[in-house]
Amino acid sequence: MSNRSGVAMSEVSVSQPKLLPPSGGEFTALASIIRDSGLLRRRYGYYWSKLVLVPLLTGALVVVFVLVGDSWWQMLTAAVFAFLFTQIAFLGHDAAHRQIFRSGRWNDWVSLIIGDLFVGMSYGWWQHKHTRHHANPNREGADPDIDLPVIAFTPRQATQRPAALRWLIGHQGWFFFPILLLEGLSLHASSVRRVFAREPVKRRPVEIAFLVVRIVGYLALVFLVLSPGKAAVFLAVQLGLFGFYMGMSFAPNHKGMPLVPHDVKLDFLRRQVLMSRNIRGNRVLDFMMGGLNYQIEHHLFPSMPRPHLRRAAPTIRAYCEDHGVPYTQTGLLRSYAIVTRHINRVGLGDKDPFSCPLLELRQTPALPVPPPKA
After folding, report:
1. Number of domains composing the chain
2. Is 0.90 topped by the overall pTM?
3. Contact indicator for 85, 62 with CB cutoff of 8 Å
């Protein structure tokens, strides 16, 4: 199976499984295996240690910032803030998916405190956007992650962009990663717009209060310690690196994977696996990407605690192979090359940026199963 974005599926998949028609209880059977393996059990020690470290590390970094004072060395502090806020955001992501506590209320409040008060991102906005993505990854017209104003992720989007942006769209693969430097500012702006919009927002007063304390308090701290010029550069560095780190962690997950045509209906197993890409790596990469490198496992079991994703991967990979479901994984740098090439091809007007296994599944009759050997 080829990938018209310039990548052969065999280069990025662990196997080349046959595409068989889906059957009813495939995910139910997999879920039973995972549950019986204890991989859905909570990891309270792991998460409580992180929850305790969040205020301690944040407070320690604020003290360092104040002690260093009005110095250009603070640009290094800005980079550390960017790294810390991204790691805290990963923890908020875990809580939003009910990975930390059994109680939905506890998870909600942890997400609110971590997201709004520490990172400056609205939990309500994130849930509204991220829930739709998980329900329909890479589905045209349903997944907000492939509907952005600057980057075209489908040929139709590319043709609908204003003429003034055609050259940019045609080279958008090379601009995609630099544009991520603006993602941090965009996340804060989208959060503020959401909590002040007319649409219903759960716990709106709490979100507004937390965001005001976080954003106004942070700006006040920066401008009280630094001169205006240094403060502006500090914020540019911190926001730029924060957005870049976030974007580089999320980009490999689905970009360049098959899109789901609006008229195609899929069972849950294929809807999540075919559109997701894992990133091979070690425990350092697991930490740096907040577990997002196990995107297939995360999409199949969003409430699975982060430390269990690595343990679940071999079981899920083997299960997908046995049931003819392509399971895709590649290296980190390779994934960025795939994303760049794919986005460029879409921007240049490629009408079929990749061969979609979903269409092959619809068009290919069931493959005969060979009789067992004597």
Report:
1. 2
2. no
3. no
